[in-house]
Amino acid sequence: MKNIYTILLFLIGTSFTFAQSGDLKGTVVDQNNNPLSNVNISISKTSLGTTTNAKGRFEIKNLAAGPYTLTLSIVGHVSKQISTTVLANKSIEIVTVSLPEQSEQLNEVVVKGHHNKYAVKTPSSSLRLKTEIAKLPQNIQIISSELLQDQQATSIMDGVIRNVSGVTLLEHWGNFARVNMRGFRLPAFRNGFNVQDTWGPLSEDMAFVDQIEFVKGPAGFMMSAGEPGGFYNVVTKKPSEKSIRQVSLMAGSFDNYRATLDLGGKATENGKLLYRALTYNLSQKTSVTAELSVQQAESYMGAAYVFAPNEDGYGSLDRDFKFTDTNYPASDIQEVTFFGTVKHDFNKDWSWETKFGSLRYDQVGNSTWVWSMEQNGDAVRYISNWDALSIGKYFQTYVSGAFQTGGVSHKLLGGFDYSQKEYWADFNQFGLTDIDQPFNIYNPVYGNTELPVFNKSVPVQYRDNIYNYGGINRSVYVQDEIGFFNDKARLTLAGRYTNLFTRGKDETDSKITPRIGLSVDILPSLTAYALYDRSFIGQNGVSFTGETFDPVDANDIEGGIKKSFFDGRLRTSLGAYQITKQNVLVTDPENPNFSIQLGEIQSKGIEFDLQGEITPELNVILNYANTNVEITEDTNPESIGQRVAGHAKHLTNGWLNYKFPEISKLQGFGASLGYQYQIDRSTWSWGADNESQLPNYFRLDGALSWSNDQFRVQLNVNNLLNEYLYSGSNYATYLYWQSEPGINGRVTVTYNF
User: Fold this and answer.
1) 404-443: pLDDT as tens digits
2) What's this model's pTM, rounded to 2 decimal places?
3) Which residue in 311, 301, 313, 330 sits closest to 171, CA to CA?
4) Cβ distance 670 to 653 under 8 Å?
5) N- or C-end of the chain: fewer Cβ atoms within 10 A?
């Protein structure tokens, strides 16, 4: 471990150079004075640059004082170059630039802006934040669409989480991802809405995904009712004026075939109606966006689990061992989501946005588990019904703005959030499949079981003795980011009032959760930050005396530094945190069948993330996390100090991508190599003396590619070392595990037309 810490300190401790700096900002419009989005802004003789947002605005911060030449370009419009001068400690507003449409179709794009593949500068609008990530008092990591493409990810379960420090994927039922970070489950967000279910939502197809944002800590600017580890937000692709015409075909191991089609651009000549999803620009200041997504899946629920006696140990059966019978049926799942957004800009500083959404998840099927396991390998299996329905309704409205009070700047955010969720599931119907004789794992015989018949005649929400949970969350939030010393120091003061109704409780839970953050630019490329934030979780049930339980209360204290290298092309962050969960339910020592609120869990750790480019040809992802989660208060003294399962104590990942330069004879070719390494890990339980029963995890992946302006051919090979990789847990009389595939690959051909 000393070597790892030495590397981190070396990367962060590289000598810094100080320079007086200033900012450049401006607006780009077309010949009709309509804002132009996605315009490339590049600075001559540097790799610096940015793109305009939906309002045609751009901003480049922390430029050394002096003269600059900016090139503004976008396909279909005349490119322009303008000269300006940056003044120390000043923010220079450039005169509005007009880029008229080309009168003739270009045969080639002459001006090419430089784009950083892996380091995303700003979060999506669904996070509501107007400040770039490096200046925020929070650890936020973003996985870009280019990184998803280089790794050929088709769902979040394809190893996507390795691109962020400290994130692990627990076992799965084949259709959704259970993602943990800092020792706690991460709620799944989609376009800023919390769509998490106990078993859901359906894992998003990456063909629809633009980027994935991991927000670490309670993040009161988005939610307060939930686990304190943070959340991940899947941002789907949005319409733009840029024409998008892309088709891809993939073939891979295990008869894996896939085709995708991505179309987008202007639906009308004046650009008022855009498609991919649908956006209609009512005016220069007002737009309406609608997005409908339908996912259909067929999943063999629980079929990935393998069971064995304790004495045999994990991985004691062949990696491809099949525990279910050949007649085990698949489950049918359909998920339909709809999101709508209305945006209005009052002026360049103030805007209003209202969003609404709905989710419906229908599942008709079953799951399987082991009924008993003998030491000689004789197992009795059973199948249970698993029909489910989940319905979610969501609403958000908020106003954001900027203003000055003397020499102090303010970025104000305020709004109202509402969500209503309910889930129904029928688990109660089940039947044994091994009736005449047990299934022996050492001498398996297939094809001799009979499937139980379940009554599915009544819709699941109206059946007797079903599992049902739900809740309504109403909250009001206000935040002010206050900038001092020409925004070189930023103080965030915020608070959220949340009223939470939990099905099964007669009373609602209400709480005010404060948020305080500080971010200071020590140098133009070095920022230090500190944060205090809180969250809470409603609880069901009553004590022996009939008293209801207070919500679990959690607070997060963290701080760190963010450093950029090579003129901002390579970005790093190093932070430490401590999360404390109080009011956790523990066993009542006087009434063992009941609980009392005396428990406390504490999570501590450090996290390091590096992403970006070392040279224009070489891009890199590197991260490390040390996580420790343990019980700090309990009615049983022997439990104090016991580790809480669901994390790896040491976790590091890396990904390198090299693309040969245009001057090379190998122009267009590229290669990637990545690893995942987990030490001292667990999913649901630890062994004796708090020791992990699972071996360390190491996986090596690679890729080769070739591309030009129209074609891309890519080969990815996962688990290059063909390691037997798995995760699992001990169930006292038996244990189980889920194995990953051995060496496997996929080839994708993409054509842009």
Assistant:
1) 999 999 999 999 999 999 999 999 999 999 998 999 999 9
2) 0.85
3) 301
4) no
5) C
